[in-house]
Specification:
Two copies of one chain form a homodimer.
Chain A lengths: L1 E6 L13 E6 L2 E7 L3 H7 L7 E5 L11 H10 L6 E6 L2 H11 L8 E6 L6 E4 L3 E8 L5 E8 L5 E2 L1 H4 L10 H5 L4 E2 L5 E2 L1 H4 E2 L6 E5 L9 H4 L4 E5 L7 H7 L4 H11 L4 E4 L9 H8 L5 E3 L5 E3 L1
Parallel strand pairs in A: 3-4, 4-5, 5-6, 14-15, 15-16, 16-17
Antiparallel strand pairs in A: 1-2, 1-18, 2-3, 7-8, 8-9, 9-14, 10-13, 11-12
Helix pairs in contact in A: 9-10
């Protein structure tokens, strides 16, 4: 699992930074999380394959989190996309996209599914062989969700040196062993799976929380995640403004990370009022050790 | 009058070039012509003042010509715009913008006027003290207009050395002289204006034609314009594709420029299939001498 930042700044446009958008790479799949304006330019810049994205998650319907989506969806038509695309977003986005396709006379040539979100409690919205996605109810000026992406446990690894000591274990049985099954010999003897295989690497988890006021009741959902991206629009000196605009400070993001005992905190969604983003890391690091600053083009291994 | 190119490429996104968008500077005013995605990033990059734009002209409702508009209009709210904004665009854009403002709960704090275009013949859509704007009916896959912007004649210039020879011409009379009036002395003697003033520089004109199939019937509208921006999506080797997609080739753009006897032709809206844009200039220059290639950040004095 790898997190690629396409954009991590708040709405005010600048020529060098982009609004919220990121790619979570899981195995061979790319999940797109939020799609601020210019997102497809960033996809090109960082050489992500447009066609590899099947699932798109939009946290909320403020422009700096989705104005880049319609351009990307139009480009998929241009480049001959045939595979389906799924969009998980609050109610309203479907109407916005469909109206634009109607008026621009855009006939998309791929199946496009909208999964409209409106629940106020956490819900699982996607479940595949490899991972699941669950919403994290956030509190902002408009209906907003974060997203929790959890890998499923991988198959166990063959301890091939041990396996080779048993000639009766033929290769057809390997897949069963990887699935955790014991091996039963023809004479009924059982060779326990634990003797033949090694545990897989622990499944990873990633949580995306933007935009939100300080909301400690999400902590149980974030418990022990490997990587937490939490918005930090403001510094503590502007905590009143954060509360008023329903955003968080770097300190508050760190408090969430500490309470949830996450392994790594990445801060983003920075307001343009601060000239130096290292201030966010400095403020958060008083409360939580392992903190990083998001930046366009940066990649975080989960 | 100056033309600033913000974007001049066709729809396929790239990380270094942008879709159609440009600024026409007339005196102290900036006119925005088309607004492809990323337009506001380009405005920032080339240091154009967001607040100086009052009139916005959208040629047609294909995404590469307007997907950047809603972000720009949202930013105006963020930066506290109070002055009115006028948008001249085909029917449909108003609905698209309004739906997005409704769903994103964006309350703009400035008056926003939509002037919806649907005429199939040329019409004057704006008339100010300094300039007028007239549509140029184009033919594309969707309803499309080009725009012809004509400066009004400036005031005549005082020939101050001559004026000073007549002590009876006091400064209060200067404005009348600049307007072309003769000076009448107290004794009834008339000093002809031509003796006292110099002609102003001739008014300039600019025509924007994108997107369109080769359409020679626009030539009379373009007659003698100082600068013509004409789309050249394709080279002559792909003229069948140009006809099919209702675009022009560089050669066809040059034919229009030659027939209209314009002073300077700028080509733009290049397809991404050609690695070298100088090919467009080369092709056009066989037919028309004064041809340039548009490029992001480039400025053309009219």
């Amino acid at each position: 699992m790898k997190l690629h930042i396409l954009g991590c700044h708040s709405a005010t446009p600048r020529s060098t930074v982009f609004p919220s958008s990121q790619i979570l790479e899981i195995g061979n799949e790319l999940l797109l999380i939020d799609a601020g304006e210019g997102m497809q330019i960033q996809l090109r810049k960082y050489k992500h394959k447009f066609n590899k994205i099947k699932h798109i998650f939009i946290s909320h319907l403020h422009g700096d989190h989705f104005y880049g989506l319609v351009g990307y969806l139009s480009t998929l038509r241009l480049i001959g996309r045939e595979k389906e695309v799924h969009i998980y977003a609050p109610i309203g986005l479907k109407d916005i996209i469909r109206l634009q396709f109607k008026i621009t006379q855009t006939d998309i040539n791929y199946p496009l599914y909208f999964h409209e979100l409106s629940a106020s409690i956490s819900e699982q919205i996607l479940d595949t062989d490899k991972f699941s996605v669950t919403t994290i109810p956030l509190e902002h000026r408009i209906y907003t969700n974060g997203f929790l992406i959890k890998e499923k446990p991988a198959l166990r690894k063959l301890n091939i040196q041990v396996v080779k000591q048993f000639p009766e274990i033929e290769t057809w049985a390997y897949h069963h062993l990887k699935q955790g099954k014991d091996f039963v010999c023809d004479d009924g003897t059982v060779i326990p799976n634990q003797q033949l295989t090694l545990p897989p690497p622990p499944p990873k988890s990633y949580a995306y929380c933007s935009d939100t006021v300080y909301k400690p009741d999400i902590v149980p959902l974030l418990k022990d995640v490997d990587l937490l991206y939490h918005e930090a629009t403001f510094l503590d000196q502007h905590k009143d403004l954060a509360a008023k605009t329903k955003h968080s400070t770097a300190k508050q993001a760190a408090q969430i990370a500490r309470a949830a005992q996450v392994k790594h905190l990445v801060l983003g969604h920075f307001s343009s009022r601060y000239p130096d983003e290292s201030l966010f890391a400095k403020e958060a690091s008083h409360i939580f050790d392992n903190v990083s600053i998001a930046k366009e083009g940066k990649c975080f291994e989960v």
